[in-house]
Amino acid sequence: MHEKSPILNVARREKVGTRYNNRLREKGSLPAVVYGRGRDPVSISLNHRDFTRLVTKGEKIFRLDVPASADLEAQQMVLLRDLQFDYLGTNIVHADFTRVSLTDRVRTRVPVHLVGEAKGLKQAGAILMHPVSELEVECVVTELPDYLEVNIADLDVGHAISVGEVKSPVASMKILTDPHALVAQIVIQQEIVVAEAAAAPTGDAAQPEVLTAKKPEDAAKPGAAPAKPGAAPAKDAKSAPKK
User: Fold this and answer.
1) What distance lies between CA 229 and its chain's CA centroid?
2) CA-based Rg of the chain, rounded to a whole angstrom?
């Protein structure tokens, strides 16, 4: 829980725009914006390395340590709302925060941690599926957890744990994610063997019909190939007139 949120040392950004933001990033700073509570957005900058370390640990609630001004209080409590990444999706390039108070109810996403060793994994070929790794929750700021634990020790092959079965750590918290979505499931990994195109049949059935071969009755038809010398005339063939 967030009884004591980490402090971010930030500075007010007087100039905004892509060119100025790139200069900040080159110096190790991260551009960000603070919104909410009926006040104008404020552009700030903060230490990129320190902030990334805290986000990696799962922190979402921060206190901004900044000289007080008309639109940004000293020790302002904020909730991390959005992160923007570079084109590789690995480096944070911008952050958005929302002003909150300790009594506000907020909506955000919380990671799911699976704990325990599922008994179904002892079966050969069994694998653990983790379709939903984050849950959307609504709770008071001070009750926002770093993560939600789901015990999978009793999970067996062919069984699953849905979002609706996840217990909230506090009664006032609401889980907003679809209750039918699956958090964990044990399935058997089957090797799919692609058979070769149908095996060649054997015996007479395997003999393909030779379309170019002439059938016996074709010999009597006009234009048929002449019979070999000495061969008996065709049954229906007429005798040539004598000279």
Assistant:
1) 80
2) 38
* Structural contact between residues 224 and 214, judged by C-beta atoms closer than 8 angstroms: yes
Return d(Cα 183, Cα 157) in angstroms, integer.
Answer: 15
Distance, CA of 185 to CA of 92 (rounded, Å) = 32
Amino acid at 136: E
| DSSP sequence for 4-20 | SPPEEEEEE-S--SHHH
3-state secondary structure of 93: strand
Whether 41 and 16 have beta carbons less than 8 Å apart is answered as no
CATH topology of domain 102-195: RNA Polymerase Alpha Subunit; Chain A, domain 2 (2.170.120)
Residue (of 180, 156, 153) closest to 166 by Cα position: 180
Does the pTM exceed 0.85? no
Q: Which residue shows structure tokens 């506000």?
A: 104
Cβ–Cβ under 8 Å, residues 149 and 178: no
Alpha carbon separation from 220 to 16, 51, 210, 217 (Å, rounded): 96, 95, 20, 6
Using the 8-state DSSP alphabet, how is residue 233 labeled?
P
The whole-number pLDDT of residue 239 equals 47
Alpha-helical regions (H) of the chain: 18-26, 48-56
Q: How far apart are CA 47 and CA 9, in angstroms?
A: 7
Tens of pLDDT, residue by residue over 89-122, are: 889 999 999 998 888 888 889 999 999 999 999 8
Sheet containing 134-140: order of strands: 148-151, 105-115, 134-140, 174-175
pLDDT at 66: 74
Q: Give ranges for CATH 2.170.120.20 in the chain.
A: 102-195
Task: Specify the CATH number of the domain 1-100.
Answer: 2.40.240.10
